[in-house]
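Researcher: Next entry: Amino acid transporter (Shinella zoogloeoides).
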Amino acid sequence: METMPPLPHDAWSAWTPGELARRLSGGARSWCVVGGWALDLWHGCETRAHEDMEFTILRRDFPVFRTAFPDLRLHAVGDGRVEPLGENEAPARGIAQVWCEDAAARCWRVDMMLEDGTPETWVYKRDPSIRRPRGEMVQVTAEGIPYLAPQAILLFKAKYRRDKDEADFARALPKLDTAQRDWLRGCLAQAHPGHGWLDAL
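Model: Predicted structure:
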């Protein structure tokens, strides 16, 4: 039997948020879209192209969510490596990212993030002292798609400040309300003292 070569890391043909929501419909566990797509769900339109599709779940719910993707192969991602997970294998404690491969189509479909909060509490993984009620940090579109609030998405994006992150911040800034600005400013001051976005906020 011929073994297929590993899938290149850039072989993305990602689902849309709507497709992801369709596949996860009926589930009772917490999840939400994150990354650039979350900002676009908040904006109500697609403001730029997205090379991947990221969503987050509670780490303890991983066994439940893997059953939602019976046609995908799951891979643990960390330290620049992408390693296949066994059929009943859970990601190691230090792994917070799982890529889902469509073997038939030879592409990645979705990026599953693992977080250590609870159904009631959202926790910022880079500084667990930053936490808020999940109901406050997860919003829902008119179509029923949950997504992480823009101020939290920008907090994640602040670490890298790639061109797309700067563009996302510039588009979001005029729409952030006072409470969102204040929260993001406080978190940036704590997690990234002297960050360039602080003056803009």
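Model: Note for the record: The chain has two domains: 8-148, 150-201.
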